[in-house]
Amino acid sequence: MANTVDMTAHPEAAADTREVTPPSEHRRRKGRRGAWADGHSRTIVSPLELKSRWGSRIYWTVLAAVLTVFTLVFVFPLYWMVTGAMKSGEEIAQMPPTLWPKDPDFSVFADAWELFDVGLLLKNTLFYAVGAWLFALAVDVTAAYALSKLRPMFGNVILGAMLATLMIPPIVVMIPAYITVTDVPIFGWHLLNTPWAIWFPVAANGFNIFLLKRFFDSIPDEILEAAEIDGVPPWRVLVSIILPISRPILGVVSIFTIVLVFKDFVWPLLVLPDSDKMTISVGLSQTAGQVTQNQIMAGLVMASIPMIIVFFFFQRSIMAGLTAGSLKG
């Protein structure tokens, strides 16, 4: 072909055939490289300004102020409860209020312990919390494992139905749940004034199942396939492989379940009317008209101590559970 141009013999001809990038497109691509080339997105204050002397001072000043304000907002009610328990009735009603008691009285804690029978209430609540924790782990872990790894038919529909229950206010299902507890369908059991009235409603929790499923989804399937090749049954895979590497998310679910039992008030008030079976949140409210305000606050302080201990015990699990399942592989 005589009319064919040899591109290798004429490089200038090949250069002329290259696509010309419009100036506007060139500026747009350059802007993208400028924004993301260093791995950071655009912010109100540029990194260069933060590295300057005044920028760094303003940044740390604002950060310290924000952290201080939020810390006071969350900690001040607890501080006010502890100091209010050591005040007299007159000092509690004094206006303007005092930030620290003039004459701290620590004997009010012993009086509240005997008056409310805090020892019995704490024992009852701890018994309900431990039982609810065991039942919740047994039900939620197995359900999440089945939805994540066993993949049953209509698994997504079942999970969606569980999550849909989170959109319903708890007070709406209070009456149906109470009727169910008073007369369990098919079996005809009467569960009032029994621990089962607390354990059964807490055991199945859609939010906990969703958290556990998301974490189980991040576990590589190759580990489970290798176990299946070795002939390990599914229940043994769950106990020996899944649970040991799921301790962070199990700690988070444990915290949620225990705190739910300790702080719940309306449901234990309905299903545990006997005074010797009440939880601590209900027991402290039953003699509210017969005691002083500082005694009530002292009882509330003692009721808060177990939750503070649980928090410090599971602190690492909570921090690790915040990012549990965020990365896969």
What attributes does this structure have?
flat; mainly alpha; 329 residues; 67% helix
Description:
The protein is mainly α and 329 residues long. It has 18 helices and no strands. Helix 7 runs parallel beside helix 10, helix 8 crosses helix 11 and helix 11 packs antiparallel against helix 14. The longest helix has 33 residues. The protein is flat. The two termini are 57 Å apart. The N terminus is likely disordered.
Which descriptor suits the 3D outline? flat
State the helical fraction.
55-70%
Straight-line distance between termini:
57 Å
Mean pLDDT: 80
Work out the strand percent. Answer: under 5%
- Low-confidence stretches are 1-19, 30-39
DSSP strand count: 0
Content-based structural category: mainly alpha
The major pleated sheet works out as: none
How many H/I helices?
A: 18
The ordered H/E elements are HHHHHHHHHHHHHHHHHH
Strands, helices and their partners?
Layout: H1 11-16, H2 23-36, H3 47-51, H4 53-85, H5 89-92, H6 107-116, H7 118-150, H8 155-164, H9 174-182, H10 196-203, H11 206-217, H12 221-229, H13 234-242, H14 247-263, H15 266-271, H16 280-286, H17 293-313, H18 315-321
Helix pairs in contact: 4-17, 6-17, 7-10, 7-11, 7-14, 7-16, 8-11, 11-14, 14-18
